[in-house]
Specification:
Length: about 190
């Protein structure tokens, strides 16, 4: 599934205040996701790549996200950090700077949910000598291929600050709504 569609739904969810509408949009999104990728979207919604009991975190801080944004947009780290100080959200900074990139990429491919999830998994597994450079390369690869909306969520997910207002109960309600629709159709 293309990550662009997921970012579109995340934007829709972020821009509504009603929990019922959030649940409806989330249910619509989940209905479109292939069964083998549902687990991935649920973890990413929570800023995770595995259940809490496994103790696996993406392990990416604000400084590395800002460096990844700078590396792929052509803006300096100082410009990224200055914008972050004003805005207070690296996701919004990524979105704004990707819109106005100073440099283009020689190669980029449309992002998929599996690609985003896979890169975050690889980032979580990197440790030791050279791990920071590898993590930076993996996040920069995502930013390089991202649209502005996709970049916003690629920056937010590893920080665990997706800002959608969706908790476990909303996720469960979205599944219940989806299954209730299916029962009605059968």
């Amino acid at each position: 599934m293309e990550f662009k569609l997921i970012a579109h739904y995340f934007d829709k969810i972020e821009n509504v205040a009603s929990r019922l509408e959030m649940t409806k949009f989330l249910s619509e999104l989940i209905e479109q996701i292939p069964p083998e990728e549902i687990k991935q979207i649920i973890y990413l919604l929570q800023g995770q790549i595995a259940p809490n009991f496994k103790g696996r975190e993406i392990g990416f801080g604000e400084k590395l996200i800002a460096e990844g944004i700078a590396k792929t947009t052509g803006f300096s780290k100082k410009e990224v950090n200055d914008r972050f100080s004003k805005v207070g959200d690296l996701g919004t900074v990524a979105e704004e700077l990707i819109k106005t990139k100073k440099q283009g990429a020689l190669f980029s491919t449309p992002l998929t949910l599996s690609k985003v999830f896979s890169n975050f998994e690889k980032i979580s597994q990197k440790e030791g000598t050279g791990s920071v450079e590898t993590k930076l390369k993996l996040i920069a690869e995502l930013f390089n291929s991202a649209s502005p909306a996709e970049g916003k969520y690629i920056a937010r997910i590893p920080l665990g600050n997706i800002r959608l207002g969706i908790g476990d109960s909303t996720i469960m309600d979205a599944f219940a709504l989806m299954f209730a629709k299916q029962e009605t159709l059968d």
